[in-house]
Amino acid sequence: MMGDMRQSLLRRDALSAAKEVLYHLDIYLSGQVQNSPSPSVDTPTLELVEEFILHRRMSALQELQLLEIMCSCFQEQSRDAVRQLIFSALFTLQGNQADESRMALLGKLVSMAIAVGRVPILECAATWLQRSHTVYCVRLASGLVDDYCSLLPGSMVPTLNNISSSSPQFCCQFITAVTTLYDLSTEELSPPVELLQMVVSWIQDDPRLVLVTLLNTPASSSQPMGSLDLTPLAGLVCWCVKSPLAYRRDRKQGLSNGMPDTKPEAGPLFSALHLSVLQVLLLLPGVLREKGLLGRLALMQPEQLTSLISDLSRLLEELNPLQGDTQTHTQLTLERLAQALQVAMAAGALLCSREDLRALCSHLPHNNLLQLVLSGPVQQSAFYPHVNTPPLGYSPRPLGPHLSAHSPHPTSRSPHPSSYPSYPSQPFIAGMAFPFRPSH
Predict the structure, then answer these.
(1) Is residue 228 scored above 80 in pLDDT?
(2) Confidence of residue 405 (pLDDT cuts 50, 70, 90)
(3) Would you say 309 and 242 are in contact if contact means Cβ atoms under 8 Å apart?
(4) SS3 at position 8
(5) What are phi and psi for residue 222, nearest 5 degrees?
(6) Distance CA 409, CA 141 (A)
């Protein structure tokens, strides 16, 4: 039967053949969902998809028409299970030569779905982002940012503003992907201001947006190795903490190269984002307790914190730590780090002992608030039942190499030095008494 269908498709033009394969997918997978307890796509069907949708050469007009047909196909299919299977048949990466065509077509389809508001496609794309390897998720996100920031500057915020309410799961996964992509390690990997504005707007409108994937994921499920984090919290914390030093570095490099500083000011946006992230962390205990994961699931992994501290040390090396302006930015960075650590530990997002934190932060410059946080909670230990105890379990995603191992932007970095004589190191006074006590 498949042989006869293939012969029929070979006699058609590229667009007509692709449309016929989509129709076949819809009929075949609808039957699978109705009649099979575990519906799946067989190999002959995948081969038809690759040959007649991914490999056939089309003109630009035919490709646009194909994207419109796909949008209609997903919009008209009322059953989500069938839509997800069709999307999986088209875009699940198979580890073969067709994957490049898959990624190219996927980027164009999701970009069009954003532009014309095709929510079913965005919901399928959110599932794809949750199940695919980080490298490909970052690649998709990068293409979307290019489309709406580079090709159509000024279009990102108005175009994407309403998507947070219509497809929160896609927005949550998109934020996770862009915080992975833009790690502020270089000026090129600092998030565009338009993107930052949109992320801040989304989270301010609904702080729980950051937790949508966590809320929708069963506690017993596991994530694929190398996939995106369950929430963008770790990436957002890195943005907020590193931004004062990273943007100071970028401005300094631009001035030294004779380039005028014409970039919009991102500082207030990062300040607003930092406040929003702390508010999200305060929501966590209730969410984790409801799912039976309080004290068992670390949404901020120790290796992510290690990488953040290492990045801060490198940023401090690149700047003159004794310069007054740099001192101001350094103290702001350390205060944000201290606030994030304290709230994350109190909320159960970071399962790490204070002894480990003191060792990690031992080479950072002195900061009063950070000293206070690292010395221990002011309240009795029972106030934080899950902070100073070892985790009861582990993240549902198996721990693998550090995320940067999958980064599509490899960088060569010098070894981390053991000491920094140019500024005073962070002293740690165990059991030090502090005059401040909360009154409530």
Answers:
(1) yes
(2) very low
(3) no
(4) helix
(5) -125, 150
(6) 14
